[in-house]
Design a protein that fits this description.
By secondary structure, the protein is of the alpha/beta class. Helix content is 47%, strand content 19%. Bound molecules: ligand C2E and magnesium ion (3 copies). This is EAL domain-containing protein.
């Protein structure tokens, strides 16, 4: 087909691939403008202690408001990386989020922060220094920050990544494996990696109570985490029966639309202030369970 079209010229792109490349280039320049025009925002999704309802931390999630419409991160993070923009953008997210959470902590709310990082962000020059600088400049203690990375960041050509993440961990920063169970991290790796937290992928949680295998796998991951001394967070909790089963499994932490959606900083504040803990401190999200 390529030959017919090009008369001997080699046609490397199928038409749909070409359209995709053009779209990505356009997205790249849109992104440049978006950063200049401050179209990005950070939202925060509460993570709770499933036994007590207390909000133990928030996960920072990047939002792009393009012409009043929110573009999903999955659509723009790839292009942002390819255009080199993800490094300044990621640095901006980290600083915004650290600044907000440091402010909450000064208001005597004992809350942690998780921020997502891609392999390319971790591989960027001066990555360790830039995280340390964000902490120093915002006053967030390293112990309050968790870096979330997907499994492949740690196991695929991971030499330098692991070194860099270990350097931050030596400062007190915690490390979480995001989307655990979907990637390459074999169980054998777990004991060797500098990891503190595993976040069970929503695809397991989705099957809780309805799919026997997924329920068994979730139970196994929760137990494995506990036995290895790791904190386990179940992600994507949407239905009460999932929450109920996770509690019954003694899964320590959870996150999902049923518990709380990602929201602007101001909304997190009002949520935890209207729901004080038994000790009268801010920081509880009442779980929709008896
Ligand atoms: P993630 O780190 O696994 O984040 C969790 C995603 O699940 C978020 O999607 C969140 O809105 C969504 N979520 C939370 N609870 C539920 C639920 O109960 N049901 C369903 N269906 N979804 C739920 P979001 O915000 O669209 O982000 C998607 C991914 O984009 C993130 O997955 C993360 O990998 C990436 N991302 C987001 N913000 C950043 C960022 O600042 N930097 C980097 N490097 N990646 C980011
Ligand atoms: Mg995450
Ligand atoms: Mg995740
Ligand atoms: Mg994910």
């Amino acid at each position: 087909r390529a030959k017919e079209l090009g008369g001997g010229r080699v046609e490397v792109f199928a038409p749909h691939m070409h359209a995709d490349v053009v779209r990505r280039l356009e997205l790249g320049s849109d992104l440049q403008r978006a950063l200049a025009e401050e179209q990005f925002a950070v939202e925060f999704q509460p993570v709770v202690d499933l036994a007590t309802s207390r909000v133990t931390g928030v996960e920072a999630l990047l939002r792009w408001w393009r012409d009043g419409e929110s573009v999903p991160p999955e659509e723009f993070i790839g292009p942002a990386e390819e255009s080199g923009l993800m490094i300044p953008l990621g640095d901006w997210v980290l600083r915004e989020a650290c600044r907000e959470v440091a402010r909450w902590r000064r208001d005597s709310w004992d809350v942690g922060l998780s921020v997502n990082f891609t392999a390319r962000q971790i591989g960027a020059p001066r990555f360790v220094e830039s995280v340390a600088a964000a902490l120093a400049e915002t006053g967030l203690p390293p112990q309050a920050l968790t870096l979330e990375v997907r499994e492949e960041v740690l196991v695929e050509d991971a030499g330098q990544n692991v070194e860099r993440l270990s350097a931050l961990r030596d400062l007190g920063v915690r490390l979480a494996i995001d989307d655990f169970g979907t990637g390459y991290a074999s169980l054998a790796y777990l004991g060797q990696l500098p990891v503190d937290i595993i976040k069970i992928d929503p695809s397991f949680v989705a099957g809780l109570g309805s799919d026997e295998t997924l329920t068994l796998l979730t139970r196994t991951i929760v137990r494995l985490g506990r036995d290895l001394g790791l904190t386990v967070v179940a992600e994507g909790i949407e239905r009460p029966e999932q929450l109920e089963l996770l509690r019954e499994m003694d899964c320590p932490r959870g996150q999902g639309f049923l518990v709380a959606r990602p929201m602007a900083a101001g909304r997190v504040e009002s949520l935890v202030r209207t729901n004080l803990t038994a000790q009268g401190r801010p920081g509880e999200v009442p779980l929709p369970l008896p």
